Task: inverse folding
């Protein structure tokens, strides 16, 4: 009985070896490819975290975009689009500063100078 079972298994293995190819491809993965994949993942996480912030969510809802739709749009972006947006997020001024502060500062300095000289 045991001998018949072993023969059956051996024949099954021979058929499987013949039917299924055993070829595989292994190649070198460059450092640049690995770094690009890691950077794309971190950039996508940065954009997702930015969209997930409460201030951004409230502004998106004011514009008529639901938070789930915004997250779905981030997931649908290509890696280059996500990297571009992540770069813009990193370059935004902290504390929501704008050019109005510069204009107001110049106006105050101008008024002080005008009344001082006068």
Result:
């Amino acid at each position: 009985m045991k001998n018949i079972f072993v023969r059956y298994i051996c024949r099954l293995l021979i058929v499987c070896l013949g039917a299924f190819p055993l070829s595989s491809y292994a190649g070198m993965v460059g450092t640049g490819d690995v770094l690009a994949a890691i950077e794309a993942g971190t950039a996508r996480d940065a954009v997702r975290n930015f969209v997930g912030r409460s201030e951004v969510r409230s502004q998106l809802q004011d514009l008529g975009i639901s938070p789930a739709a915004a997250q779905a749009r981030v997931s649908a972006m290509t890696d280059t689009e996500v990297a571009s947006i992540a770069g813009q997020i990193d370059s935004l001024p902290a504390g929501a500063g704008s050019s109005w502060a510069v204009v107001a500062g110049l106006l105050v300095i101008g008024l002080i100078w005008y009344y001082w000289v006068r």
User: Anything to note?
Assistant: The first helix runs from residue 2 to 19.
